[in-house]
Design brief:
The structure holds 2 protein chains of 2 kinds. Helices cover about 55% and strands about 5% of the residues of chain A. Chain A has 5 helices and 2 strands. In chain A, a hairpin with a 3-residue loop joins strand 1 and strand 2. In chain A, helix 1 crosses helix 3 and helix 2 crosses helix 3. Chain B is α/β, with parallel strands linked by helices. Chain B has 2 domains: about 210 residues, Rossmann fold (3-Layer(aba) Sandwich), CATH 3.40.50.300; about 70 residues, Alpha-Beta Plaits (2-Layer Sandwich), CATH 3.30.70. The C terminus of chain B is likely disordered. The chains are: A mainly alpha, B alpha/beta. Chains A and B meet through helix 2 and helix 3 of A and helix 6 and helix 7 of B.
Chain lengths: ~140, ~300
């Protein structure tokens, strides 16, 4: 059986973001940056619940959300593993999420009142930074 | 009442102290397994509910069942399957822990020494100490260890972490999370600590003046409450006319409205009421629950 990949997650309970989403977001980010590579084995629900000090049903829910989005793959009796790239999100779902993110970004940036070129440059830099962290 | 898989069940349960209704036609069903948090302002009826359900007090009206048996008819064997820990952690002060443990072991047939050792391990207490030598946190830990070692089907915790320091609180939560997984007990947990509830609870049950005001996952409840901040001319709309209003405050001339079950349509409502600019944001569980409890007229569902 493969060894469990260490997983660093910082929770901010008491915030408006539900714990289940905080967990899912950080695992998604860890997969995106390559910190958790394809095939990496995640901690068991019980272990991660103990690590984060949360109800194990919360961890189980985060895992099953990620599995249904295609980020993780359950292997019977062996736990959860990082899935391959394919099938992570459908084309329509990607488009929908992109629109949503752009909408939220534009709504925020409008108030800042800067020329679009500066906003675009900042986004490009942030995405390049993410790319640099990604292990090819 | 039909037999079900609920550990605790009440139907139209009513109990009055003089003219005050501590339980007001309360109908509640808590299913087996999981951690269920009960929240309510002081006097919301939590303690009365436990007294009635445990058969220590007869209700004025309605029915209540514990582990499938009527509360007024509980056998000693059935009581042995229910654990109860409150913030007083009352134990005989002069006894050494090991004598207390030996006594408990002989009283409870399902006693599990491994569970006792594991839970005590979170709190680092010596078994040769006397109860009076324990700190508040150690006493809480010891009470919890004993309660869990009895292997109850149902464990009721009434504000167990009240007054504990951060270390003891953490140990308590760790022991609870582990037990909910391993021993498959149902835990009913009364607390005012929303950060704990957010981490621990499967279900958030809110009691308000003896009635059931919410029964859902904590996140689902938080999702129902939104904060809207609006710049309104003059005095703003009459609070009584605002849909779903839980709490209204005026800060720096802006109106802050905490509202329940209002979608984005509430923004249109504010605009129609003359709002010049509007922001909305999510709130955390603590804000959602306190706004909900502070609103006198909240009647969801």
């Amino acid at each position: 059986m493969s060894r469990v990949a260490p997983l660093a997650i910082v929770l901010a309970p008491g915030g408006p973001r539900p714990i289940v989403r905080q967990i899912a977001d950080q695992i998604r980010l860890a997969i995106t940056t390559g910190e958790l590579g394809h095939g990496a084995r995640l901690p068991s629900v019980r272990a991660l619940a103990g690590q984060l000090l949360v109800n194990s049903n919360t961890v189980a829910r985060a895992y099953s959300d990620l599995a249904s989005e295609g980020w993780l793959q359950g292997q019977h009796g062996q736990g959860m593993f990082v899935a391959g790239q394919q099938g992570r999100l459908s084309q329509t779902e990607r488009r929908r999420r992109l629109d949503e993110a752009v909408g939220a970004f534009v709504a925020t940036i409008v108030e800042v009142d800067l020329p679009p070129s500066i906003a675009l440059a900042a986004v490009t830099a942030a995405l390049q930074d993410l790319d640099a962290r990604r292990v090819a | 009442m039909a037999r079900t898989d609920n550990v605790l069940e009440t139907r139209a349960l009513t109990h009055c102290y003089g003219r005050k209704r501590a339980l007001d036609s309360l109908t509640l069903a808590i299913p087996r397994a999981g951690i269920h948090a009960i929240v309510g302002a002081n006097g919301a009826g939590k303690s009365t509910l436990f007294r009635v359900v445990l058969g220590f007090q007869a209700p004025d009206a309605g029915e209540s069942m514990l582990l499938g048996s009527p509360s007024h008819h509980l056998t000693p064997a059935l009581r042995g399957r229910v654990g109860y820990v409150n913030d007083a952690h009352t134990l005989p002060a002069w006894l050494r822990l090991k004598s207390l443990i030996a006594m408990q072991r002989s009283l409870y047939p399902r006693w599990d020494e491994a569970v006792l050792s594991r839970v005590l391990g979170y709190f680092a207490v010596s078994r040769s100490a006397r109860v009076r030598e324990l700190s508040r946190g150690e006493r809480a830990g010891f009470s919890l260890a004993i309660a869990l070692a009895r292997q109850p089907d149902l464990l009721i915790l009434d504000e167990p972490t009240l007054g504990l320091d951060v270390v003891a609180k953490r140990a308590f939560m760790e022991a609870l999370i582990h037990s909910a997984q391993a021993e498959d007990a149902t835990i009913i947990y009364c607390s005012h600590q929303m950060d704990e509830i957010e981490r621990l609870a499967d279900t958030l049950i809110i009691l308000e003046r003896g009635r059931l005001a919410n029964y859902s996952a904590p996140d689902d409840f938080t999702e129902r409450v939104r904060l809207w901040i609006a710049d309104m001319p003059f005095k703003g709309p009459d609070p009584a006319s605002i849909p779903g209003l839980l709490q209204a405050r005026r800060l720096d001339g802006l109106f802050h409205y905490l509202v329940l079950d209002q979608g984005d349509g509430f923004g249109d409502w504010l605009k129609a009421a003359g709002a010049l600019s509007i922001r909305q944001q999510r709130v955390n569980l603590d804000q959602a629950v306190s706004a909900f409890l502070s609103a006198g007229h909240a009647t969801p569902n």
